[in-house]
Design a protein that fits this description.
Distance between the termini of chain B: 30 Å
Strand order of the largest sheet of chain A: 2-1-3
Number of domains of chain B: 1
Helix content of chain B: 25-40%
Low-confidence stretches of chain A: 1-18
Oligomer: heterotrimer
Number of strands of chain B: 10
Helix content of chain A: 55-70%
CATH topology of the largest domain in chain A: MetI-like fold
Shape of chain A: extended
Number of strands of chain A: 3
CATH architecture of the largest domain in chain A: Orthogonal Bundle
Mean pLDDT of chain B: 86
Mean pLDDT of chain A: 87
Order of helices and strands of chain B: HEEEHEEHEHHHHEHEHEEHH
Chains: A mainly alpha (436), B alpha/beta (281), C mainly alpha (463)
CATH superfamily of the largest domain in chain A: MetI-like
Distance between the termini of chain A: 60 Å
Radius of gyration of chain A: 33 Å
Number of domains of chain A: 3
CATH class of chain B: Alpha Beta
Chain lengths: 436, 281, 463
């Protein structure tokens, strides 16, 4: 009791007691700083955990994915025998047979059917399509011999990229020893090489990894986002303007606000259920189309856009509103000609961020049938289409090793788009950042 | 952080680059508690205080007056290194506390602030009970190891702050539930609880009504017997009521120092005279 | 025949024309009346009014047609079917009609194509063509009529500005109520299908049943047999994975926010904040792929080295990755609330000689606690609604277990697996997805509302 009294009124007492207070404080300092340091260290660790995770995620995707930008091609000398090609109607010819013929010429010793099948399996079925396109474009080639680089089968591609190991026992390998020999022969003759994978950027989906591309999904995403953008930007802007500038403060507008805030936090898959029940089953809109996908994503991104737009409107200082009203404009004129132009960059930034979210969204689109296997590249809003994230999901489900690298490559393409959009948002924010 | 930035932009009045003006009056006192020499304060590259030199005596109340933005609060915050919490703030010159430079790299702000407490413009009790508001600092410093010690400190601090009788029955209620004047006295009790030697007060009454202000002023007068007090105030009446010495700041310069009587009856500098006669400010 | 896009573009062109015509007329009548000042509103408003009358009624007619096109045409087609077909039981008839529709739009048909089907489909296509034509004509006529109507009424006394502003205001109000319509749409659609499900399976069996194996129910003659739709294992799995996610996300997210706002220097913040934003911007499908490709195998092999049997679809892998995904979310919400704590409280703590960590632990966190709790609730709501990570990395079979090394399934996984692929409408299997959706929606709604209220109250306190 008495000692504590001394401490507590130390300031009042003589200098010897005063020393004691500071001594007590100093005695504990080391321990307190240890705690301090540990706490700070935990904080730093938390950030580092996130950083490390991000680094691991990106490196694993890049290291898995970059090889998909290259593809193994094989050079075949193809004799365009006029006997096998109909000059009048070359499209009808049996190009598969011509390809097989040229393969046979490379390996004259392979004769029995089983071996031949094994041999043909090294070449992609895309070779025939490629040849067909070539002949359709240049019918005058008929009768000549052309040297053509055709895609190899994905197993060959995986071997060339080192994903199929020669050291593995034959029965656990997807390529037999005999096939390896044939491939080595191609390599000896400089007939096999890795080239930039154009197909990946120009083709739609395919069951054959070497023929599968992301372009169909890119276009699908484009059409879907276009629908989303065209609907959600004006609607979001109008809603924000009403709520921020005109809405009376009453129960109805409160209810709207609660709804918007809640919708922003509702799981995206629930919007998919809504789309399935309302757009597909009730209104009978076509499944798997960018139109429906865009509508669902519109409902999903609308809250984001409204909230961002309201923030942008709030940032316009009241003095500008008062000035506009002061010169006798109506409230509507004040908003449209003074407030909106100032808030527009902020609204656009919010919209871009909303669009980036929509671009990466998968779950609601699964609900409205956008998981179908679609080979054709969509040409409009009502063609069945896949979008990029769904394409990633589909490929991630495929067992072939070659689809693994294509999944990662598709992720890289998707991330590139997202980076572009976010960079646009950042630049726009920087450019129009105003200080009033 | 935003709060800090706001504060910064407020205090970042641009001063034209120029030489400091010479201080009129005697800056020295006998046996000083704190000694400040040639103190400059910069926010980033803008200078807020120029070559301020002044002594702070024992058991005296030093009042710092001057128009808004003159740097008096900035200077006050230098005295217990509260400016450390503001990004981009830089202090040069010497500030000695009991003979030791508080800006020396070997000095630790934690025990320093335990010795030089502070009371702010707006009452800022912690979102805790009245009891915990007062006992928290002694506890973290190890001044109150047991419940009994803590009880003792709480009671004596609240007594000294003149709040004990008003709150002794509701010590477990939140400190934020008190009236403004009570909150400010709670903050003073909080500062006293760690037995500081100096108490810095940054316009402690500006958010209070006249009755609460009068109580705080009485309290300051009582506290002077045990502590050194430096008070920044906007009100010249308050300065003349509570202080023994007064320092007048203007645009970052310390213009004039002297006993409160002298400053208010026959100021030497024209600016001081203009200010105390209410010509501006 | 006119495609919808062309029709809309024509409408747009007509409206622009209407604008100029209306404006011209206004200027003309103003001249006749003795100057612009005689007009009630600026000429632009007369133009805008004309354009509005031109496009609005026509546009609504068009939307009306789009919405009801299918049902109108279908009922016409059904009316022309042979009596045998018309008297089929409803399910068979529906099947037939959907086949006709896909045939008409050139898609693959599930059953064999009969001559009748072909006839019906061509009838369908014909009707579609005729319908489009009629609608195109009606829409254009309506547009021109609207335009002429206003054009003839333009006089100096016409209160064009007020009318235009009223129309715009109505539009604004309509747009802001879309959020309500969306909520109502969600509730109605999910509730409607869920109620149909509960006709097959009692609510109590669904909510408290311990066995979940919906695949059994599609077998012939076993419509929603008891026991197959007990959702407890699904809920438990969801909670298990969410709990793991929160155990990762809350401490790391909170400590990150604290470190960034209280400790980190400017430069560190300039690097770390965008990095967290990148983490937040990565699509969930990427996280899912990463969880399945990298994290799950690592955990599995790590487990086998320790001699523990870990499922390749362990709850731990999915939960861990989901937690990482939520870190930026928790961190940015906590950052907001910690920054909302007034600087004066920090000053108060520092002025009595507290260290930073003491200030944070004893002053800032207690002060920000309501906001932090609100943020965590929002994060929980996100975790239980997260779909892609669990679809790709968690299991399908519903195990009732608390062991994070085993595979569990979640509500969202079940919704996806039940609804993706061939759907049979009216089968309890499909409807169960909506019942799960209802539970999911109600649970997140509950969490969101509590969280939003708490955060709002908290903000008001410090504003």
């Amino acid at each position: 009791m008495s000692s504590s009294k001394n401490k507590s009124i130390a300031g009042a007492s003589g200098s010897s007691r005063r020393e004691r207070t500071i001594d007590i404080v100093n005695r504990r300092l080391a321990k307190r700083y240890r705690i301090e340091k540990r706490f700070r260290f935990y904080g730093l660790c938390s950030i580092i955990v996130s950083m490390v995770f991000l680094a691991v995620l990106l490196t694993s995707i890049v290291s898995n994915g970059y090889s998909a930008f290259f593809q193994t091609y094989v050079r075949l000398d193809i004799t365009l025998d006029s006997a096998m090609l109909d000059r009048e109607n070359p499209g009808k010819s049996n190009f598969q047979a011509i390809i097989k013929q040229s393969i046979n010429k490379l390996y004259p010793e392979v004769e029995d059917r089983k071996s031949k099948r094994e041999l043909y399996a090294l070449f992609s079925s895309g070779a025939a399509f490629q040849l067909r396109d070539l002949v359709m474009r240049h019918p005058d080639l008929i009768g000549t011999t052309v040297s053509l680089w055709v895609p190899a089968d994905d197993d060959v591609d995986m071997l060339m990229k080192g994903y199929i190991k020669r050291s593995v026992a034959e029965n656990e390998r997807r390529l037999s020893d005999r096939q390896l020999g044939w491939i080595d022969r191609l390599a000896d003759q400089d007939r096999i090489e890795k080239r930039f994978n154009v197909t990946f950027f120009t083709a739609g989906d395919s069951r054959e990894p070497e023929l599968a591309g992301i372009w169909g999904a890119v276009k699908g995403s484009f059409f879907t986002l276009l629908v989303t953008l065209v609907l959600s930007f004006p609607i979001g802007l109008a809603a924000a303007v009403y709520l921020e500038e005109f809405a009376p403060k009453n129960l109805a507008t409160d209810f709207i606000e609660v709804n918007i805030n809640n919708l922003a936090a509702v799981p995206s898959i629930v919007f998919g259920l809504l789309g399935l029940a309302v757009f597909l089953n009730f209104f009978g809109m076509p499944r798997s189309t960018p139109l429906v996908g865009g509508l669902v994503l519109m409902l999903m991104t609308l809250p984001t856009i409204i909230i961002a737009s309201r923030a942008a409107l709030k940032a316009v200082p009241p003095s500008i509103r008062e000035a506009a009203l002061g010169v006798g404009s109506s409230k509507m004129q004040m908003v449209s000609s003074h407030v909106l132009p100032l808030a527009l960059p902020g609204m656009l930034t919010g919209t871009i961020i909303g669009m980036a979210q929509a671009l990466g969204e998968t779950a609601p689109l699964l609900m409205i049938g956008m998981v179908a296997f679609i080979v054709d590249i969509p040409g409009g809003f009502t063609d069945p289409a896949a979008v990029m994230p769904v394409q990633i999901y589909l490929w991630a489900d495929s067992p072939e090793r070659a689809f693994l690298e294509r999944t990662s490559a598709a992720i890289l393409v998707l991330l590139a788009f997202l980076v572009l959009m976010n960079a646009a948002a950042v630049i726009m924010r920087k450019r129009f950042e105003k200080r009033w | 952080m935003q709060e800090v930035l706001k504060k910064k932009s407020l205090e970042k009045r641009v001063l034209a680059p120029r030489e400091s003006r010479k201080t009129i009056g005697n800056i020295n006192v006998q046996n000083p508690r704190m000694v400040c020499r040639n103190v400059d304060v910069y926010y980033d590259d803008k200078q807020a205080i120029r070559k301020v030199s002044i002594d702070i005596g024992r058991n005296e109340v030093l009042a710092m007056i001057g128009p808004s933005g003159c740097g008096k609060s900035t200077f006050l915050r230098c005295l217990n290194r509260m400016n450390d919490t503001i990004d981009g703030c830089r202090v040069t010159g010497k500030i000695l506390f009991d003979g030791k430079d508080i800006y020396d790299s070997s000095v630790d702000v934690v025990p320093l602030r335990a010795q030089i407490g502070m009371v702010f413009q707006k009452p800022n009790p912690f979102p805790k009970s009245i009891y915990e508001n007062v006992s928290w600092a002694p506890k973290i410093h190890g001044l109150a190891e047991s419940k009994a010690e803590a009880d003792e400190i709480v009671e004596s601090s609240l007594h000294k702050a003149g709040l004990w009788d008003e709150v002794k029955d509701r010590l477990d209620q939140p400190g934020t539930g008190l009236s403004g004047g009570q909150q400010q006295r709670l903050c003073i009790a909080r500062a006293i609880a760690v037995s500081p030697e100096v108490i810095l007060m940054d316009e402690p009454c500006s958010a209070l009504d006249p009755i609460a202000t009068a109580k705080i002023e009485d309290l300051i007068d009582e506290l002077r017997e045990q502590y050194t007090i430096v008070i920044v105030t906007h009100s010249m009446q308050q300065a003349s009521r509570v202080s023994q010495r007064t320092a007048f700041f203007h645009l970052g310069d310390l213009i004039e120092v002297g006993s409160t009587d002298t400053i208010f009856t026959k100021p030497s500098h024209q600016l001081t005279e203009d200010y105390i006669t209410g010509r501006y400010g | 025949m006119m495609s919808p896009i062309v029709l809309l573009l024509t409408l747009l062109v007509l409206s622009v024309a209407g604008y100029y015509i209306g404006r011209r007329k206004a200027l003309y009548v103003a001249d006749a009346a003795g100057g612009l000042s005689k007009l009630h509103s600026r000429p632009n408003y007369y133009g805008a009014l004309t354009a509005l009358w031109c496009c609005m009624p026509a546009f609504f007619l068009f939307v009306f047609w789009l919405v009801f096109e299918q049902s109108i045409i279908t009922s016409l087609v059904v009316a022309d079917l042979s009596p045998d077909l018309r008297n089929l039981p409803p399910e068979r008839l529906n099947l037939f009609i959907s086949d006709v529709r896909s045939l008409a739009s050139g898609n693959i048909v599930s059953g064999e194509i009969t001559a009748e089907m072909r006839a019906a489909a061509s009838h369908y296509v014909d009707l579609q063509g005729i319908g489009k034509m009629i609608v195109g004509v009606i829409v254009l006529v309506a547009a021109v009529a609207g335009m002429l109507f206003v054009y003839r009424h333009i006089t100096p006394g016409l209160r064009a500005r007020n009318q235009v502003e009223r129309a715009v205001m109505a539009l604004l109000i309509f747009c802001s109520t879309i959020a309500i319509f969306t909520t109502v749409g969600i509730v109605l659609s999910v509730l409607y299908e869920a109620v149909r499900f509960f006709r097959h399976v009692p609510v109590t069996d669904f909510l408290f049943g311990l066995e979940w194996s919906p695949q059994m129910a599609i077998r012939e003659g076993q419509v929603g047999s008891s026991g197959a739709f007990g959702a407890i294992p699904v809920f438990a799995g969801t909670l298990l994975i969410s709990a793991i996610a929160m155990m990762v996300a809350v401490p790391i997210g909170l400590m990150s926010a604290i470190f960034l706002s209280e400790y980190a220097g400017k430069q560190f913040r300039a690097v770390a904040k965008p990095m967290l934003e990148i983490l937040a911007g990565i699509p969930t499908v990427v996280y899912g792929f990463f969880a399945a490709l990298v994290v799950a195998p690592v955990i599995r092999s790590g487990g086998s080295q320790l001699g523990i049997d870990v499922s390749s679809e362990s709850a731990l892998a999915a939960g861990l990755v989901m937690g990482i995904m939520i870190i930026p979310f928790v961190s940015s919400l906590s950052d907001d609330v910690i920054n909302a704590v007034p600087q004066s409280l920090r000053d108060g703590a520092y002025s009595v000689g507290a260290t930073r960590s003491e200030t944070i632990k004893h002053v800032l966190i207690p002060a920000a606690l309501p906001g932090i709790v609100g943020g965590i609730l929002l994060a929980v709501s996100r975790a239980i609604g997260e779909t892609m990570i669990v679809v790709m990395a968690a299991g399908l079979s519903a195990n009732l277990t608390a062991n994070p090394l085993q595979a569990v399934t979640t509500v969202t996984v079940q919704i996806v697996t039940l609804l993706v692929g061939d759907q049979e409408f009216d089968s309890p299997k499909t409807l169960a997805a909506f019942a799960l959706g209802l539970v999911l929606f109600v649970a997140t709604l509950f969490l969101n509302i509590i969280a939003l209220t708490v955060v709002r109250k908290y903000r008001e306190r410090y504003e």
